[in-house]
Amino acid sequence: MEQTVSLLDAIAPSPGEPGREMLDPATGELVGVSPMHGIAELEAAVAAAKAAQPGWAAAGHEARSAALLAAADAVEAHAEELARILSREQGKPLNGPNARFEVGACAAWLRSAATTPLEPETLVDDGTTKAVLHYRPIGIVGAIGPWNWPMMITVWQIAPALRMGNAAIVKPSNYTPLSVLALIRVVNQALPEGVLHVLAGDREVGAAITTHPAIGKVMFTGSTPTGKAIIRSSADTVKRLTLELGGNDAGIVLPDADPAAIAEGLFWGAFINTGQTCAALKRLYVHADIYDQVCEALTAYAANVPMGVGLEEQNVLGPLQNKAQYQIVADLVEAAKASGARILLGGNPQEDQPGYFYPTTLVADIDNENPLVAEEQFGPALPIVKYTDLDQAIQWANALEVGLGASVWSTDPDKAREVAARLQAGTVWINAHGVVDPRIPFGGAKQSGYGLEFGAEGLKHLAQPQIING
Ligand code: NAD
């Protein structure tokens, strides 16, 4: 605990500077005080980044990779301290696929960005023409992130940016600034001064990043409406954008699936981070032949997964991160109930308890048009829709304007791949959902965004391609 105090102290505003008290969504207790940065701090960060970036770019891949590997070591050296800050501010438990897991992922993605090869590509070399494609730094990259996986998503944005020789300016969500400030403080132990900045400001600071003429690219992860606002606001400076936006991922369970074997995977595909995950399973379509068995197996598994205060080791599900998100989930479940849908589990929040806890909720016999199916709930409430005709299920899965992930569940991998090929989503998993891997590119289809993250493709998206012809 002593260490936690020290990092939180280090990032706190100096006396007299503006600050915002951050409260634990599980208990309402004070976690720490975040500074409140504004446009003046953005200008100072841009000036420092401009001064530092050429040296960072000139240092070369080897030196930058070494720095990122050292940053991964520093994150691991502070892992428990970072996980505790994250757990208390975001709400996710320490244990399970939550806070410690997220900090571990930060180290893994830093290492992957450091070690993924990306060489210049000779495109033509026929004796008369020689054309080589190089990947140059863009300059300064803005990184704007959400509150659900605040540390991991920040690393997804900055690690490839830094590797490719850019400076970066991070703007965390104002629901989770402490987590990101603490992370950047640790990462900066391994980087030259001026290369990496963090500004804990309101959305005005985010908006100013998207219009700033000195910033060449914005990495944005967040909601689809904000993504659209960023496309508009970045137009005048023709900024490069990578947009990872909202989703409403469908999963289709084929009639040959084994309900008992898939229950655990379905549960964590939907409920990881208490459902507050972009590429979580948010609509489940189950064939009528095994509908009842899947509902039973999922309910039996879900009923035994402990939810509670994050610092208590037995818990692996936590509260919603904020009141607005709690209300979205509660309203959608109430509307589903009112429509006559059947609650298999949950749906009965205890309003008199502290914290934004919404119980694990499974809703059966629900129409595809119900808002709990058609809208992104981003919380622990999964609608389970019955289908009899596979073409109909695929049509339902593809009917929305978003397409981040999707999944197919079956004992026949060839059949599952055939169905997967017909789904409109950036990633389709088979017998799993939402599993990300630093070696495998990730990005959305349709209004879930554009651009890829991770692997060599991810590095290319943080570079300015340049052809040398001759
Ligand atoms: P949000 O869009 O409300 O906020 C995201 C960030 O944008 C915050 O830092 C916010 O301060 C900033 N912002 C707000 N208005 C801005 C503007 N006009 N210009 C620049 N920045 C601005 O999203 P959220 O509620 O924090 O996150 C939840 C959403 O994010 C969900 O829809 C979820 O599906 C999506 N998400 C997507 C991915 C992915 O990889 N596709 C990952 C995580 C979350």
UniProtKB/TrEMBL annotation:
The keyword Zinc-finger does not apply. It holds the Pfam family Aldedh. It comes from the Bacteria. Keywords: Oxidoreductase. Residues 21-466 form the Aldehyde dehydrogenase domain. The active site is at residue 244. GO terms for molecular function: oxidoreductase activity, acting on the aldehyde or oxo group of donors, NAD or NADP as acceptor. PANTHER family: ALDEHYDE DEHYDROGENASE-RELATED. Belongs to the aldehyde dehydrogenase family. This is Aldehyde dehydrogenase. It comes from Sinomonas humi. The lineage of its organism: Bacteria, Bacillati, Actinomycetota, Actinomycetes, Micrococcales.
